[in-house]
Automatic annotation (TrEMBL):
It holds the Pfam family Alpha-amylase. Keywords: Glycosidase, Hydrolase. Signal peptide: none annotated. This is Glucan 1,6-alpha-glucosidase.
């Protein structure tokens, strides 16, 4: 088996709460995932990234962990997890666990102990001060010991103190517990925050961050070929080298968000800007230019925190399928490891939220309150949440055209998108021209074609709305092109077509002066380019 198996792999993110409900309580669960393994096998993916399944009060949908060693009863039992792990392994699918080590729930035993007294053995597992330092909102007063504790997220998610060696040992011991079970790695939530130093006003990329990651690597996953991907909103291509250069022995890769931030006005995701293809090209090219011996890329269009890509950048109307395929072709043929978010392969869309009662997401509720206090109207706020709320990605997976989309027979924890009647897995699998089969073919290409891992990337200068690039090895050249707009665009070149790779429309015969149709995308092998 090739070392760094994850370079030729495609990872599929499952948000368990919304994937498939096996016991009709309205919440997706582990047995529901096991039930749908054949579907994932048909798609062709190599590994499932599971959003948190650990015991949790679910203040932030499981990203507030109260016991790292237990499965939350909402999702099933540890025996269910063991069965999923075994059945997935039997059909060649690995499991990657989502892990939150920046903070815990305030219901975690460590925090309950820490609150008891200032000299409790777990006190220093968290960050305490007599008075808030810096941002007041990041501190909550605890009357039992008359001190404030630090939290970058909600008060129910106290931050761990990574400067404490005993805490770090406990984290590594827990990580080894899961690795010993047979999982294939971790996605590490907000990992760029663990080196924080609140007294110095440092919350991200703290001075000891990479020291901690090296120590973690040595103590846990470093000895074997595991996939480790760090969520790092602050990361840049230069910083990515620190995380994922093989000789540094930290992580396999990070999630870099430069491409998505091209639509964040003033760096604020709530101020959504339209797709800017020029900026998108610039952002992606910066990451693609990284030498693979210096850093490895992750390639993604969505996750549990992001809007649906066809609603965010594509055309969720008449060109929904075509625009979904265009983004898939464009991203999957770059250098890096592709990640698919559940339902992306169906072209699932944002939910038409009309009021706050339809939204569960903690972040969205906090945003609503803040903006209401600033004087915005409810209608103005809901319009923004309709575009950007994290619950757009969390509505139940659409399996069938039935009323509850085959997700459950109970009352779903979030309302099923009304377009499930048209957009669902049954329909997609039965249609050989569906988005599903474009993804299936892209995954097959990733497995078979070494150039996808090895070839250099070269951005081609084009009109603003066309995103085109070359992938080149010493002996072969490939052209990938997409019109990311609803109007025809012209493309001129001297390339000569050799073989057809994949397309969402008819392949062009001549590449001299092409009119590229709205949302048309294709990849061709061309006569070798020097």
């Amino acid at each position: 088996m090739m070392k760094n198996w994850w370079k030729k792999a495609v990872i599929y993110q499952v948000y368990p709460r919304s994937f498939k409900d096996s016991n009709d309580d309205g919440v997706g669960d582990i047995n529901g995932i096991t039930e749908q393994l054949d579907y994932l096998k048909k798609l062709g993916i190599d590994a499932i990234w599971l959003s948190p399944l650990y015991q949790s009060p679910m203040v932030d949908n499981g990203y507030d962990i109260s016991d790292y060693y237990k499965i939350d009863p909402l999702f099933g039992k540890m025996s269910d997890f063991d069965e999923l792990l075994e059945k997935a392994k039997n059909i060649g699918i690995r499991l990657i666990m989502d892990l939150v080590v920046n903070h815990t729930s305030n219901q975690h035993l460590w925090f309950k102990e820490a609150r008891k007294s200032k000299d409790n053995s777990k006190r220093d597992f968290y960050i305490w001060r007599d008075q808030p330092v810096g941002e007041r909102r990041n501190w909550t007063y605890d009357s039992s010991t008359q001190q404030y504790y630090f939290h970058l997220f909600s008060p129910q998610q106290p931050d761990l103190n990574w400067e404490n060696e005993e805490l770090r040992k406990e984290i590594y011991k827990m990580m080894n517990f899961w690795l010993d079970k047979g999982i294939s790695g971790f996605r590490l939530d907000v990992i760029d925050l663990i080196g924080k130093q609140p007294d110095q006003g440092v919350t991200v990329n703290g001075p000891k961050l990479h020291e901690y990651l090296k120590e973690m690597n040595l103590a846990t996953f470093g000895a074997k070929d595991y996939l480790t991907v760090g969520e790092a909103w602050s990361s840049s291509p230069e910083l990515a080298k620190l995380y994922s250069s093989p000789n540094r022995q930290e992580l396999s890769m990070v999630f870099g968000f430069w491409h998505l931030l091209t639509s964040a006005g003033n760096g604020n995701k709530w101020e959504k800007l339209p797709l800017n293809v020029s900026k998108l090209k610039e952002a992606m090219a910066a990451w693609q230019k990284l030498n693979p011996n210096e850093a490895w890329n992750s390639l993604f269009l969505g996750n549990h925190d992001l809007p649906r890509i066809v609603s965010f950048w594509g055309d969720e109307g008449e060109n929904r399928e075509k625009s979904a395929k265009a983004f898939a072709i464009l991203f999957h043929l770059m250098r890096g490891t592709p990640f698919i978010y559940q339902g992306e392969e169906l072209g699932m869309t944002n939910f038409p939220f009309e009021n706050l009662s339809e939204i569960n997401d903690l972040e969205s509720h906090e945003y609503f309150t803040d903006k209401k206090n600033e004087g915005k109207t409810e209608a103005e706020i809901i319009k923004i949440l309709r575009e950007m709320s994290r619950d757009n990605a969390r509505t139940p997976m659409q399996w069938t055209s039935e009323q509850k989309a085959g997700f459950t027979n109970g009352k779903p924890w979030l309302t099923v998108n009304p377009n499930a009647a048209e957009i669902n897995a049954n329909q997609a699998v039965s249609d050989s021209d569906s988005i599903f089969y474009t993804y299936q073919k892209l995954i097959e290409l990733r497995h078979k074609e070494d150039w996808l891992v090895e070839a250099d990337f070269e951005l081609i200068e084009t009109t603003d709305k066309i995103f085109a690039y070359l992938r080149k090895t010493g002996t072969r050249s490939f052209l990938v092109l997409a019109n990311l707009s609803k109007s025809p665009q012209h493309f001129q070149s001297s390339y000569v077509k050799k073989n057809e790779i994949i397309s969402n429309d008819n392949f062009p015969n001549l590449l001299t002066d092409l009119e590229i149709k709205p949302w048309q995308a294709f990849a061709l092998e061309i006569e070798n380019v020097d």
